[in-house]
Amino acid sequence: MVSVGFLTGRTHTVVGSDTRTTNRKLTNMTDKLTVSVLGTGIMGAAMARSLARAGHTVRAWNRSRDRAEPLAADGVRVAADPAEAVEGTDVVLTMLYDGAAALDVIRQAAPALRPGVAWVQSTTAGIEAIDDLAALAREHGLLFYDAPVLGTRQPAEAGQLTVLAAGPVEGRAAVTPVFDAVGARTVWTGEDGSAGTATRLKLVANSWVIAATAATGEVLALAQALGVDPASFFEVIADGPLDMGYLRAKAGLVLDGRLSPPQFAVATAAKDARLIVEAGERSGVRLDVAAASAERLSRAAEQGHADEDMVAAYYASFDEPRSAG
């Protein structure tokens, strides 16, 4: 969900106890793979196109097939079911709504998955779901990679996501070309996908994005309520430490009425906010801002904004329908 700057080449960062960092351009992009993408929403479809552009053979499946069909124009083969999508694949990538959906779809695909296939699990599933996902991978002999991504529609379409990854070293020759096709940067957080270190980092990053987005909506709502021109606010903070490109970009979506198509949808952001709150509760931390943001996003969805950009939580500030004007 974080929009990242466009980078040249592919950066690979290792984080952990040794704190070593390496940056290099990879040379193994000549390795072409068969990659199955299960889930072709905003992010999954963009990732499938990036993989196809990189020269990989891509198969895609989506629960609503009409959302996958446009990928055929990009050279992606659209499968009728998950098992058909993963037959003979080198890597299976899941980008679904939540952990439960990922479990269900991989169970459907399992009869066609051979042992040793790498499973890149990019769904924002939350900490509690990781144990079940990793157990399913072990049950079928799959190499499990916990690999959520940071980025929205625009960087996803450009293959400029940041990939947060944890998983075994022995399978990285297969997954690295996948990460390089969809992302500008890969941050390795560990060698055990089941530990959920990448998911934990994703939740921390998302907590900041959700808080910043909620604050953006509220400052616009307050300005409207008090009769303040939002331009005056932006002028006051211009070029100072409170100024943010993200704030201006998200505010612009509201002020210009450009909430569709979404960079990241309200309904999905609400789900992520709930996962963040649950993660905090598991660790004995109260996350009041995340909890309030989850409630705001849910209220905006109930008001009819579920499929609009997440900054449409702005409308949750009002009991009656209105424009940003």
List keywords for this structure.
alpha/beta; four-stranded mixed sheet; 12 helices; six-stranded parallel sheet; 325 residues
Q: How would you describe the overall organization of this protein?
A:
With 325 residues, this protein is of the alpha/beta class. The chain has twelve helices and ten strands. The chain has helices at 42-53, 65-68, 82-86, 99-109, 127-139, 153-157, 172-182, 197-225, 230-237, 245-255, 266-282, 288-305, and strands spanning 11-14, 34-38, 57-61, 77-78, 91-94, 118-121, 143-146, 149-150, 161-166, 183-190. It has a six-stranded parallel beta sheet, sandwiched between helices. Strands 1-10-9-8 form a four-stranded mixed beta sheet. β9 (161-166), α7 (172-182) and β10 (183-190) form a beta-alpha-beta unit. α8 (197-225) crosses α11. The longest helix is centred in the middle third of the chain and has 29 residues, at 197-225. The protein is globular and about 60 Å long. The chain starts with 10 loop residues before the first strand and ends in a 20-residue tail after the last helix.
Summarize the structure.
The protein has 325 residues and is an alpha/beta fold. Helices cover 44% and strands 14% of the residues. The strands form two sheets. It has a six-stranded parallel beta sheet with strand order 4-3-2-5-6-7, with helices on both faces. Strands 1-10-9-8 form a four-stranded mixed beta sheet.
